[in-house]
Amino acid sequence: MTDYGRDVSFGVFPTPDAADLGTLWAVVAAAEHGGLEFVGIQDHPYQRAHLDTWTLMAAVLARTERIRVFPDVANLPLRSPAIIAKSAASLDVLSGGRFELGLGAGAFWEAVEAMGGGRRSPREAADALLEAVEVIRLLWSGGRSVRFEGDHYRLSGARPGPAPAHDVGIWLGVLGPRLLRELGRVADGWLPSSGYARPDQLGDMHARIDAGAAEAGRDPASIRRAYNVWGTITAGPSGGFLEGPADQWVDELTELVVEYGMDTFVFGPATDPVAQVGRFAAEVVPAVREAVRAERG
Predict the structure, then answer these.
(1) Would the pTM of this model clear 0.70, i.e. be above it?
(2) Residue 1 has what pLDDT?
(3) For residues 92 and 227, what is the distance between their CA atoms, to the nearest angstrom?
(4) CA dist., res. 39 & res. 148, Å (int)
(5) Would you say 105 and 125 are in contact if contact means Cβ atoms under 8 Å apart?
(6) Model confidence pLDDT, tens digit, residues 230-241
(7) Opening angle at CA 210, ends 228 and 163, nearest 5
(8) pLDDT score, position 240
């Protein structure tokens, strides 16, 4: 295991529920005023209870002044990478450089098909994701016109623009060996979830990312390692991983930084989200920052 030495960052994963806007905005406000760095918003257009992610991200950026926003992760099978590139650059310009881009290969294929998308095999989904990264970067390149010919996407003299306001990071929510290695070669961040990548699995996954980075002549420490984490900060005894009092959270998140290589934590409260985000910001985040500083000496 390794500590990549990056600054530790924190965010929140609010539920984009159209029927409970009061809670949604209160969670965002708690994150903004509590000093968290990110709001990550899931992108499941087929989920009838959810607001459209890209519309919601624009509203979050308009209602905040400091916090950064990203799709966690963008639903590539239902969204053209060329339009993703345009939308991401536009949100970055409008917010003064507060947008990052999380991308996923896709899942829930029956629901995707129900909305008019195509079902992809695992290999097809991986290939399409890697093509999308190329397409997006070309459309952020500032070139006069760009061309790309892939199996899933193509550009025929498309004119890039506008350029993003800052160097927008592309973070991939991937788990498989091939895509982890490719992430190390071409992406700016890794965005797994604790329910799909347990702490004891992270070491092998980091090693694949690092191998890809080395092949591309990149410093592995330049790649953000973000972790979507779910749980409850309680007043009682431990109930397991990230289910317990604040000091347990501090110990476990600190260990995830200095022993398991993660550097960014996006918190999805299991219950009572406004109060939980308030406790996370006040009791957990500053203590983790201090503990990591102490561990690093």
Answers:
(1) yes
(2) 66
(3) 23
(4) 32
(5) yes
(6) 999 999 999 999
(7) 70
(8) 96
Report the distance separating Cα 38 and Cα 26, nearest Å.
15
Distances (CA, A) of 35 to 12, 96, 266: 11, 18, 13
Two structure tokens written together for 172: 């991939």
Residue 98, both tokens: 């507060």
- What's the pLDDT score for residue 217? 98
> Which segments in the chain show pLDDT lower than 50?
none
Answer whether 85's CB lies under 8 Å from 74's CB.
no
Q: What HEC string does 61-90 produce?
A: HHHCCCCEEEECCEEHHHCCHHHHHHHHHH
